[in-house]
Each structure stands twice: as structure tokens, then as C-alpha cells.
Amino acid sequence: MELKGERLLGADRAAAWAALNDTAMLGNCIPGCESIAAIGENQFEIAMMAAVGPVKARFKGKMALVDIDEPNAYTMKFDASGGPTGFARGEVRVTLVEEAPRQTRLTYVADAQIGGKLAQVGSRLIDAAAGATADKFFEAFGAQLAARAAPTAETGATPVAPAKIGFFSLLLAFLRRLFARG
Fold this sequence. Notes:
This protein has 182 residues and is of the alpha+beta class. It has helices at 13-20, 23-29, 117-121, 123-149, 169-179; strands at residues 2-9, 33-40, 43-52, 55-69, 73-81, 87-100, 103-115. The protein has a seven-stranded antiparallel β-sheet with strand order 1-7-6-5-4-3-2. Strand 2 and strand 3 form a beta hairpin. The two termini are 17 Å apart. The relative contact order is 0.28. Mean pLDDT is 78; it is low at 158-167.
């Protein structure tokens, strides 16, 4: 399965990159996200609840960031399992391009394989659930990023969150997109 998309973010590229690497912010934006923990340099463990139609499960997995070109792009490789419910594995290439001083275009191309009971649900249901979940993630992420990137009233300065971890938001959004209710 291949998924492509793009979003216009209300922040400069540096702020967008920092936000996409902030695990606390991402965890708040991803429906069903239970935990995200670093286990090494650019390597993470994730846990989340997800559902596609009648199939619901808790997924655990690992993710690694490769081909990092800060603050422009990177590739996220992932492998997650929901036990007998199924699995998802693949990779996502994420690119950030600054369109204007406070506007950045995020594009992604994801290639994933799913198996188990999940694969039996049907591609239309999976695609619909994936699209709905991605929309929910990007709405929440865009709103939090815009609030974070807005100049403060007192100083006029733009607060920038520290970069923390890798860009696993797309992994989680992608997994939610695959496995969430439509």
C-alpha cells in the first residue's frame, strides 16, 4: 500500500522540524498513542491502540530514522505488531520545504505492508480509516504548531521548542491512518 500527502504548516521550516521531533507534542496529536520512548540514537519504541472496522488491537513496535537531512527531510522505517490481529511495516519519506517566512509545506510518501486479520478487513476500509486518521492528526498538529510558532505578545519573539527525538509522527500518524476507525 502506498500513501502520499502534503500539508501546509503555519510555521517556518525550523519550527516545523522542531515540532516534528517533539515526542510530547506528537503524542498529544496522535489518537490512541499510549507511549513513545527513545531506545537509542534515532530509534524508538511505540505503543498505541488502533482499530479498523471490527478489528481492534494494541500495537507495539519499533521505528528508526535514516537518511536524515536536517531540517529538510528524513526517512522513517517502522515495524509494529498487534499480535494475532496483524502487523504493519514499511517506511515513510518526509520532506519540509519553506514556502514563505511562516509557511512550510510538509510532504510524505509512505509504503507499507499489513498482514493478519487487518489484511482481511479490505483495502477500502483501511484506506478510509487511514485518511480520516491522518486528517485528525494534521488538524491537531497544525493547531499546536501554529500556537507554538505565534509571536508572543510581550516580546514579539517566536518561541521555538527544542528538538527532541526523530520524526516518528508520520509513523504514528500512518499507523493510526491504517488502523483507526473511519
